[in-house]
Amino acid sequence: MSMITITIDGQKIETQEGEFILNAARANSIFIPAICYLTRCSPTLACRICLVEADGKQVYACNAKAKAGMEITTSTDTIEQERRSIMEVYDVNHPLQCGVCDQSGECELQNYTLELGVDSQSYAIKDVERAAIDWGHIHYDPGLCIVCERCVTVCKDMIGDTSLKTVPRGSDPLDASYKESMPKDAYAMWNKLNKSVIGLTSGEAMLDCTSCGECAAVCPVGALVDTEFMYKSNAWELRQIPATCGHCSAGCQISYDVKHESIENSREKIYRVMNEWNYVSLCGAGRYGFDYENRDVNKDEAAFTKALEAFQKADTIRFTSTITNEEAFMLQRLKEERGYRLINHEARTFQNFLREYSAISGTALYGSDLKETHDANFVVSVGTALKSDNPNARYAFNNSMKMNKGAGLYFHPVPDPVIEGLGKNVMSINHAPLQEEVVLYLILDLFADKEQLPEAITTYLERFHGTKTVTVTETIKEEVVESVAKIVVDEESGEEKEIVEEVKKTVSKKVEKEVEVQSNALLEMLGAPENFNDALSKYLKKADTFSLIIGPDCYTHPNAKNIARLCALIEKYSAFKLVMIPTLTNTLGVSLICDLDEEAGSYAIGYNAPGDFTLSALGEGDLDMPALNQQEGTLTSINKRVNPTNAALDYEGYELNDLCNALGLESELTVDYTQRLPIEKGFQAQKFDDLPNHYTNEGVEVRGYLLENRGVKTDNDERVDAINTDLALKEGSIVYLVNPVRQFTAFTNKTEQLHTDGGLYMSETYLNESDFNEGDTVTVSTSLGELTVTIISDNKIDGAIACLPTFDNNINSEALFSAYRFTSASIKKV
Amino acid sequence: MSMEQFQDRNVGKQNYFTVDIEDYPVTGMDKFRRVAKRTFRGELFVGLWVVLREMFKFDIHTVQYPKEKLPIGPRYRAIHQMQRLWESGTERCIGCGLCEKICISDCIRMDTRIDENSRKEVTEYSINLGRCIFCGYCAEVCPELAIVHGGEYENASEQRAHFTLYEDMLTPVDEAISGKQKEFPGFGAITPYEDERVKKTPLAY
Ligand code: SF4
Ligand code: SF4
Ligand code: SF4
Ligand code: SF4
Ligand code: SF4
Ligand code: FES
Fold it and tell me: Which residues in chain A come in under a pLDDT of 70?
């Protein structure tokens, strides 16, 4: 796409050819009123207020594309009349309840009504009964709804649940005289609005979705609100703390909205989480899991002294990746100074994977990010339960299906109704566990440039090709002659008589035929559906930008090393851009900063992890630590961005930096380490206070900085191992280690709105086909251990694989797994 | 967005700053000089003269406060009152927060919640009278004619921060129902002739 120049209200601006006029204007700080448009989603033309004149013709700025030399006027008399009438229509029968409305102060209806100076009303219609409904975590008040359809749009185009739709309002038709008397667009807009309100796509009573809350966030009025937040605080009382969500590796930009708890208690509390929904979409964990702070902590000197003693004794520090880069750096410094072993298996697995990948790719990091997935039109996901592991990767996957008319392949053993529901162009291939290697070979086979690919691999891939005879049913047309009896009236005599006539007819007939077709043994190994090849060639017709998402199942795979090398080959020899999902919040940062060890020593300090002496931000350990919403520092995201986060809440206790200072490292503040993060790993020597954290009007992410993807020496050895066909899980039930949506760690589970008991998650199909029932207590045992859990029915998974979570500290699921996320187990009722 | 506020790490602690004040005399001589200057400048006698003059005129208007109190005009802005609706006695305040928003001295706080009938309920409301400057903005902005200034002006206190709570300000229910609640024509009341000025919204019924 090329840059062009257009003129808006006399101002010359540069923009991409084909960019919507509205976006071009916004990027250049030119204001055009617009209500229904959401950046990154498709224009719905519900509000029509964005009318502008382009080269003398009235167009909608949100869906008219900029062409070179276009002259645009944002306001003419007719347009002003339209806009005024549109706002009047929105105000028809709108309850005068700003006084108690949760949106008041940040309501677009309030703003535009004032902006356009609507001080009188010219239209009227009888109202219909529109009672408020509680849809679970979301509260809908149709009385306030202006049917802009933003909620519907975001749920479909961005999130992918498609849980909302417009339903009939049951209102009288508009008074006929309005058709003549009203401005044209205002009338058309009202005519549509008058016919609908918002409803659920399935069921009536409860929203059955992945509960991200994005619909309520984008709602311009108070029609959709978070049930928990209702009437708790007015918008202007809340102070916004720019931060980065600490629950997963997407590292979404959020703002914690804080205020004193009550008149009695002036301690600050987080009331809600907000986001720049035009540019970043949150999941339910980020949105509702905000109150995980370590409360009421004071400087406990006795515990601190004990901690120092423990550090003297210890030879190992065990930790998780839900820490900041600065903390990871402190641990690394402690290792360098005092020789501790650093144990973090999950980060180490990722680190090893990256290292193997680098050996072929020649770069320290994968080449792509989720932004490129959003922009791609063919996306493949391998080895990740996308919606649970990184919700933003799922949004990117969905967004590319919806906005770029893309297609996608989802390779995963656990069938996922959410992914399958993303669209007709998504195929889910539910291969057996341990077959991720085969998937990557298949991708190489289908997409790599065979000319360039090392010959050994090409020949190896050839082996899987063959022909096979299949029986196909064909419909053929056949001509038949039939005799039909007819009654005709004899013209002369007037008598009726029967004659027999012969007619020719073509009928379609189904015949079975044996044909010889190309076969691909890889597809059979994966149990790909019969129509795979046909579907794929259909998908690929328009595909020109490719994105591959690799997830944690690959890092923990027994042949992870080979998989990593295959990933590098795919990136190198095909059009695929590669992005890897770091397992936890800051796995990427930790794996870059820390030298991790394999074997623990005899006495371990646990930081948010088990140990002989534990430091815990959950408040369960021997010494309290601040949680991520009480800390400032940086987190490294999947997009290879080092994002700053600020402390939303006070913390009075000791933090890791205090311990480090007592142990001989010297630094006044934790964030003094930000500028010392290792440059040789791609970090920059930037001061924490210099790191920005916002989006521009253009939608450019101005947050922290991007890691430099540094080159790595390779030995030009591109050999990969053949598929290990012996790999298979032992007989028995299969259990997968994954969290349900909205849960990631004990931190999400600590929060008021997300707190729940974990269990063994089974799909409805599983429950129907087995004699297990929801609520049964069962023991799950593998060669490594045994666990007693309760069965929970989960309609967001399908198939016959049960899932165990990691978010519930009462269920030590990880003990049952060696490393790989699937295991065979025996499940027995107690 | 500006990140300056987050770069100040003394969060929760006071940010004191010093003001420019002329230096205090330090030496004994300087102190003596100041006393002498103040004593013999003669201002004292100006005041004394006024008192003496009025005394001889026998025209004394002193109100014997606190034994005597002057009546307070209806538009006087003293300690706030919270009004109720006539007849039903329901609290007028809907918790819209406008008073809290407009208050220049930032001395109003309120707690609200959703009640059993899904309505917004004000559970507590407080004004820090030590900070209030009795400007009347809160009464003026209130869309419900709920908060008004009453005539109670005696609010001396031993502490700088002292609070009045919702129940202190609310008109007792029986007073509201029996029609004894005072309405104030002044601050916060609807301006006269509003009926003629209002633009009517068409209705389709
Ligand atoms: S939606 Fe907006 S205009 Fe409507 S009552 Fe709420 S704040 Fe007022
Ligand atoms: S609920 Fe909100 S976002 Fe959805 S159509 Fe109504 S006003 Fe628009
Ligand atoms: S949990 Fe992940 S996807 Fe969800 S809001 Fe946080 S960073 Fe974003
Ligand atoms: S009178 Fe003025 S200062 Fe006092 S509470 Fe009202 S608005 Fe605030
Ligand atoms: S402005 Fe009036 S109605 Fe609103 S909160 Fe204040 S006192 Fe209550
Ligand atoms: S913003 Fe363009 S039609 Fe609504």
Answer: 1, 490-494
